[in-house]
Every structure is written in C-alpha cells, then in structure tokens.
Design brief:
- The mean pLDDT is 95.
- Strand 15 (463-468), helix 19 and strand 16 (486-489) form a beta-alpha-beta unit.
- It contains 25 helices and 20 strands.
- The protein starts with 6 loop residues before the first helix and ends in a 10-residue tail after the last strand.
- By secondary structure, it is an alpha/beta fold.
- The relative contact order is 0.07.
- Helix 1 crosses helix 2 (24-37).
- The structure holds zinc ion.
- Zinc ion is lined by residues 125, 139, 141, 200-201.
Length: 686
C-alpha cells in the first residue's frame, strides 16, 4: 500500500483551513483523515475514526485541552473540521478510573463534555483515543490486517509480522471496556507505535498527522506482504452448469425469494433493492466447493453486522433452462436463512431477558455461484453499502484462507454488535417512507406528467427508473432526481427496446414493483377520412405501447411472486371523445379495457392494474402554443381555458402524479380509473 501523502497538498489544505480560522492541528487532522477515508482497503462506510489532542477555546473563551474526534454521520473521505467535534479531554481521561461504565452513560458523558453542544455524537471509540497519550491517533479496519488477524492463531501472526512494534489487544466489543483494556496493553510498552485489535482492526499513533498516517500505511503494507507469502491455493471450484442463466432472469427470482410479507397490511411486502457485483475474485469465492463453510463463518470486522448481517445467503448456481428448479431452491434457501436468523435472535435475546426487538430477518448479501454477489438494502444506497462490505469480505476471507483459515468473532459477540444500541444508532431511526424498497418504472418520463410522477414516487421512498424515447433527457432528469434514479432510452413501439429497457432496470435494482405506463402522443383526424396508417401508428403507441410495457413488467413481477402494480395513463378521450380525436381516443379506449383485463387475469397473483384519466394538463401534448391557440379560438383567457372545469381549477402534472401515487399505495384497489380533470360531467365514468 502506497502513502497518499502529498506535501504541497497537505500544506495547501492546512493553510486554507488556518486562514479560515481553524486550529492548525485540526486542519492537519482533516487532511490525513481524508486520505484514510478515500481508500476502501482501509475504511468503508463508517468503519474507522481518527482524533487529535489539542487546545481550543470553549464557549466562554477559556483555553481548554480537547480531543477532536470523528463524529457520527461524517464520511472520513470528505470530512470537514465540523466532523471532528471537540470534547474536553480531562473529563474523558477521568473516566479511566471507573470500574465500569454503561454505553448509555458513556454517550451521555461524551455529549456533556462537547465544547459545542450542537456537535454530532463523538465516535463510539472516543475513549480509546482519549486513553492513549499520543496527539494523533488513527483507526481503520484495513482489509489486509483483518485477513492476518481473523485466524485461530491471529495473535501469533500479528506478533510474527509486527514484533514489538504493535501491542495486541484481545477482542472486546467497542466501548469503555475495550478502551480501558487497550490503554493497559499500551502501558506495558509505551514504545508501541500502535495497537492491533483482535478480529477488529488497527490503531496507529503519531506526534503529528503524518507520522500516525505513515505508520498506518506501513503496518498495512507489512500485513499485505505477509499475505503474499506461503499461500495455499483457494478456492477449489465446484462443477458449474454448462450455461448460467442471465442476470435479468435470476435477479427477480432472488429478489422475490428474500421479500417478506409485511405483517402490517395484507398484500404488502417488505422488499429490498439489489446491487450486483462480480469479477474474478468474487467468482473464485462464490464458486468454491467449501462456500458453505467459509462464507458462513461470520463477519471480517464487527461493525459489518449492521449492514450485512452475520452471514450471506448462499443459493445454487442458476442453470440456463433450469430456472423453475432454481426458483424453488432459492425460496427454500431464503426460508432457511430466515429460520436460522430467528433462531439466532431467540438464542441470544434470551441473554438480555428478551429485551431486544428483532430486526427484519431477510439477508443483506446473496452469493450466487456462476454469477457473483448481490448487496441488498431498503434503498439503493444501502444495497451499495452492503455490496461494498461484501466485496471487502470476499477479499478478506480469501486472503485469510490462503494463509490459514478464516475465523470471526463468536456468534454471541456478533449479536452483541448487531443489537448494540450505539451501532443501530448509525442507521438512524427515521420511519421508512411508504414505498421504501420498491422499484418504480415510469415511461414517457422526460415529459411533464412522467417526470412529476417519477419525482412523487422518489419522494415516497421508491427507487425510480425513468424510461423515455429521448434517452439523453431521461438520463438528465434521473440525475436531477439523484440517489439511485436511472434514465433509460426506451421506444415502447419496439418490443426489443422495451425488453432491453426492463433488463437495464433489473440490472440496476433487481426487479420491478410498480410501472407507470405513461408514454403517449396525440393524433387527430376525422374518423371517416383518416388514413389507416395514422390510426395504426396511434395504436402502436397508445395501445400496443402500453401492452408491451405491461407484459414486460408482468413477466418480472411473476418471477418475483410478490404482486405488483400496473398504472396506465389513459385519457378523457377514452370515455368522452372529442371531435376529430378518434385516432387518439380509440387506442386509449382499448387501453382502458387493457387495464381491466390485467386486473382480471393477474389479480390472483397480487398484481393490481389501475388507470388515471386526466385532462387538459400542460405538457408535451398540450403545449403553451396550443393553449394560446385554443383559448383564442374559444374567445377566453388562457387561465379560463385551463381552468374550464367544474371546480374552476387548472389541473397540473403534479395532480396526476399524486393520483398515480395514491393508486400505488391503495393495496385493495384494482381495475380502478381515477379521474383527474377538475370535474367534467360529460367525461364522468359511470
Ligand atoms: Zn473499529
């Protein structure tokens, strides 16, 4: 591992912060914290922290000795000075004299001694930083170090590699007891340059930021060197099927297999979003004959439990042409996983007199021989985090097995971390939005109604795919929405284009739960005179387009087996024809019946089909120029033209989006048409 320290960058960063009034020690601390945080082989998603002991003024202007330590909620790779809140150091040091200190009291004392009462909570490893004397302290869960120490003889290996340079602290869960033990180990030899925390990670010390950082790099490099020596070949591969099924077919099966019925509402599911990863190292790992041993042995470092659970779900290799058997086996494996998790919870909850509440028992990582791995989460962001940690586990366990045999902390220790209130606090307590874990596809998403709908579904917690004939604009709009949103080019008049677009959606999220089939365009002509080509063209888009999209989505929904929701944008024209709008209204009328046919044919599988019947919305169909022209022709103002309905209110794309959202949430409603037109008796459904 190479040092990423660049002298002039360090100087510039420090100078810039000092000019802005930041304490120079803290400025240095920010620079190397970022260096550590940017390297995934050192730090991943909250797995590490740093500190500096310095002086600062408290709120009364008095000089105080403080520990600036990484605060929760900050990413080390992009940290700012505010991400290292200052805590009164003397108060922290005094705690050393206690025999014990509960986690809750530890947090309370740390918060009570913050210089800024509004600052984030200091790291759960704050006391360890406080109890060693060095000014700069760095802590990471470097993968190479974990491979070295996650072994039955991990402490011997650490001694072999580091000699007397590093102290070795036996495994204790983070908190007061670990901090105290680490300080005791350090005091046996104050020459130690750092500490190895068994089955957990590494601390390094320095008089300045550079020394602590360079020591970290050196110690990790020594571990890497040892991992290259005396390796045995891993892993022996199983015999795989001749042809592996495509991911587009496999992912929905897995996604459905791990979804759990939601006890709060009949027909509701707790779904997860997926993130796929593969590569030589991952395939070598998932294809191994002994996968059920080494992949089930536990986490490589304790704090992974809250993101990946203690073990991944392992399924069979999906053979091309054998998907029915794969589906049955995957469901069985997922059920066994849930049963194993429940038993694990019950076993260890008993130690807490049943005081813990079980988290959802669904897996967060799936290993698929022949394909790769999936990270899972209630959002795309969480799925990516799980996948990142799973990739680190693949690397860590592979190297551990190559030089010995991988060993994690005990199951009880994993439970204590997974159900530790301070770890759970990292995940936040916000109530999940109503569509969390669901994937929504919107066609015609670059237009006014489509984009408003994509935004409304995102706000409700869904991951969205924006499909449009104009792929560039769809991508642009997806970027505006941010998060996991994807933009995909899709021509709904072309069956292959529709299949391709849905394959992209499945690749991005693992499946589909909601489809808003919205793409459409208007053709005009007096019906007795219109040429057949025009009529057929309109049917291609305004009827067959909906059918192709619904068909592609239904196939995925059936593979998932967790129901689904098909929503269609029909039009007032479907029930109340306007003069010369036959070429538009006729296919829309057919689409209205398409909704009913889907509701009828797939109700038993939990797939609902509903439609929104909107009228006079500013959009690509009803442009500003057209509105000007029509209102002039009728001799009314544009405003009166747009609000020419019973309520006298202009209907907007957002109103239509909210109607689609309401239909998506109404789990007992199917074959429904919701009218969003401000009121028009002639177009009212009967
Ligand atoms: Zn740690």
């Amino acid at each position: 591992m190479k040092s990423a320290w660049v002298e002039h960058e360090a100087k510039d960063t420090v100078a810039r912060y000092v000019d802005a009034g930041v304490n120079p020690d803290l400025a240095e601390r920010v620079y190397t914290t970022r260096l550590l945080g940017r390297d995934p082989k050192l730090v991943l998603h909250g797995g590490g922290n740093t500190s500096v002991k310095t002086h600062g003024k408290d709120l009364l202007g008095e000089d105080t000795e403080v520990l600036c330590v990484k605060g929760s909620g900050w990413d080390m790779g992009t940290i700012e000075p505010a991400g290292l809140p200052a805590v009164r150091l003397q108060a922290l040091r005094k705690l050393r004299g206690r025999d014990s200190l509960s986690d809750e009291d530890m947090v309370r004392v740390q918060r009570a001694n913050l210089i800024d009462p509004m600052a984030p909570n200091p790291s759960v490893e704050t006391l360890l930083h406080a109890f060693v004397p060095h000014r700069f302290v760095d802590h990471t869960h470097a993968t190479a170090v974990l491979s070295l120490i996650d072994q039955p003889n991990g402490e011997d290996l650490a001694r072999e590699v580091y000699g007397k340079r590093m102290g070795i602290v036996p495994y204790i869960m983070p908190g007061f007891a670990l901090a105290k033990k680490a300080a005791e180990v350090f005091e046996t030899n104050p020459e130690f340059e750092g500490l190895i925390l068994a089955k957990h990670g590494i601390f390094t010390f320095g008089a300045d930021a550079r020394e602590a950082y360079e020591t970290m790099i050196e110690m990790v490099t020594l571990a890497e060197q040892r991992l290259r020596e005396r390796r045995k070949p891993v892993f022996i591969s199983v015999q795989l099927p001749q042809q592996i099924a495509p991911r587009a077919a496999v992912a929905p099966i897995l996604r459905g297999a791990v979804a759990l019925p939601d006890d709060n509402a009949e027909g509701a599911w707790r779904r997860l979003v997926m993130e796929f990863r593969t590569g030589d190292a991952i395939l070598n790992f998932v294809n191994g004959k002994d996968i059920h041993r080494y992949s089930q042995a536990g986490v490589i470092t304790p704090d992974h439990t809250i993101r990946t659970k203690d073990w991944p779900l392992v399924v069979a290799a999906p053979a091309e042409g054998g998907l029915d058997a794969f589906r049955a086996a995957a469901r069985q494996a997922a059920q066994a996983f849930v049963a194993k998790y429940r038993a694990y919870f019950e076993r260890h909850n008993a130690r807490f007199d049943g005081g813990k509440t079980m988290l959802d028992p669904a897996p967060r990582v799936i290993l698929v021989p022949g394909l790769g791995l999936y990270g899972l989460g209630r959002s795309k962001k969480d799925a990516r985090i799980a996948a990142d940690l799973a990739e680190a586990a693949v690397e860590g366990i592979t190297d551990a097995e190559a030089i010995g045999s991988f060993e994690s902390i005990s199951e009880a220790d994993m439970f204590d971390c997974e159900y530790w209130s301070l770890e759970q606090a990292k995940l936040g307590t916000a109530k999940a939005p109503p569509l969390a874990g669901q994937v929504a596809v919107v066609t015609g998403a670059a237009g006014a109604i489509g984009f408003a709908t994509a935004k409304a579904f995102t706000a409700a917690g869904a991951e969205v795919a924006l499909l449009d004939l104009d792929g560039e604009t769809a991508k642009e709009k997806a970027k505006q929405i941010g998060g996991g949103a994807v933009g995909v080019r899709c021509d709904v008049t072309d069956a292959q284009s529709v299949r391709d677009a849905f394959a992209v959606v499945v690749e991005a999220f693992g499946g589909v739960d909601i489809v808003v089939s919205n793409a459409g365009a208007a053709w005009q002509g007096r019906i007795g005179e219109v040429d057949e080509a025009t009529l057929r063209e309109s049917f291609e888009l305004n009827f067959y387009g909906h059918q192709r999209v619904a068909q592609a989505a239904t196939k995925i929904m059936l593979a998932q087996g967790t129901g689904g929701c098909l929503l269609f944008n029909v039009s007032k024209q479907a029930v109340n024809p306007g003069p010369n709008f036959g070429p538009y209204g006729l296919p829309k009328a057919a689409t209205l019946f398409l909704v009913r046919q889907y509701a009828l044919d797939y109700g038993a599988e939990g797939i609902r089909a509903n439609a929104v019947n909107a009228d006079r919305i500013r959009s690509g169909l009803l442009t500003d120029d057209f509105i000007t022209e029509r209102s002039k022709a009728r001799g009314v103002s544009e405003k009166d033209y747009m609000s020419g309905n019973l309520l006298g209110r202009e209907v907007t794309a957002q109103d239509v989006a909210q109607a689609f959202l309401a239909q998506a949430l109404a789990l007992k409603t199917t074959a429904d048409v919701t009218t969003v037109d401000g009121g028009n008796i002639a177009a009212a459904l009967r």
